[in-house]
Design brief:
Blueprint (H helix, E strand, L loop, with lengths): L1 E2 L2 H20 L9 H23 L8 E3 L20 H10 L3 E4 L9 E5 L1 H9 L7 E2 L7 E6 L6 E3 L6 H19 L20 E7 L11 E6 L15 E5 L8 E6 L2 E2 L13
Parallel strand pairs: 6-8
Antiparallel strand pairs: 1-5, 2-4, 3-4, 6-7, 8-9, 10-11, 11-12
Helix pairs in contact: 1-2
């Protein structure tokens, strides 16, 4: 996610200024950063602040925390990763923890777990004081919306493939982005029902996922191709109140349509079940 509204942009700018004052007060740097390093650091701070602000308004279900990869980034950033999360993530998280902006926790075990963060009460208070709303958040245009996965040996598990770019993949991605552009500007809202999980009516990004069978090594985009994401996808039927029309949402090559239920001028929505800010 990125900062789109003025209020959220002010929070990002204020946090960057707080970082500079903190480093000066604690004599953390002797030399000024190179322009490229400063730009990288500002991009990472921007990503963290925006995701923490969103978590303040719409806490992730179950844990209320955001998963974040804070380990070695030596392997580089793949097409599915947030480009802001390169080097220097862990030191910055420790610094934000010291500044009282977030609560940083390392994984309890070393196998299959990632670190997690959550906004502090002080940070959440700043979000409220600035009048930030869910409408202030946008999506990064660099975010990958075309995924290729392969079934893994573990049950119900898949591996994501960092596929090669081709004319076909560019055309498929452009199709999904056109759909997302339409959804982003559509007049859709949600009548708050007081139930959990909290609904974010601006969570509209769809991604198309192709699935290769176990043992298939050729990069193919003719298997699967379902659309995932969007606030309505897994909404409980009990929260879809009296729809008057149904808009079918079909993926090419997939026989089963999923339906987004709309009641003009409002529609029922949902927020993601789990949020991972180190990946697009």
């Amino acid at each position: 996610m990125i900062a789109k509204g003025d209020a959220l942009c002010r929070l990002v700018e204020a946090t960057l200024a707080d970082f500079d004052r903190f480093e000066q007060a604690h004599h953390l740097r002797v030399r000024a950063r190179r322009p490229a390093d400063r730009e990288s650091r500002e991009g990472l701070v921007h990503a963290l602040v925006v995701n923490l602000a969103h978590a303040s308004l719409s806490p992730p279900p179950r844990t209320g925390r955001l998963a974040v990869r804070a380990g070695n980034a030596a392997k580089g950033v793949g097409r599915y990763d947030n480009p802001a999360f390169g080097k220097g993530v862990k030191p910055l998280l420790h610094q934000m923890h010291e500044m009282g902006l977030l609560d940083f926790r390392l994984p309890l075990t070393m196998c299959g777990e990632v670190s997690s963060i959550a906004p502090t009460a002080e940070f959440a208070s700043k979000v409220r004081d600035l009048g930030i709303t869910l409408a202030d958040f946008g999506r990064d245009k660099r975010e990958e919306v075309l995924a290729l996965t392969r079934r893994a040996r573990a049950a119900k598990s898949t591996d994501r493939i960092n596929y090669q770019e081709t004319t076909e993949t560019r055309a498929l991605r452009d199709d999904v982005r056109r759909v997302n552009a339409f959804l982003a500007s559509a007049d859709i809202t949600f009548i708050e029902d007081g139930l959990s999980p909290h609904v974010d009516p601006h969570d509209r990004l769809l991604k198309r996922r192709f699935l290769l069978p176990l043992g298939e090594h050729a990069e193919r985009f003719d298997l699967g191709g379902r659309l995932f994401g969007g606030f309505w996808t897994n909404l409980a039927s009990s929260r879809r109140r009296s729809p008057t029309s149904t808009i079918p949402q079909c993926s090419r090559g997939w026989p089963m349509p999923t339906s987004a239920w709309f009641r003009h001028p409002a529609t029922s929505m949902r927020s993601p079940a789990w949020k991972h800010i180190g990946a697009a």
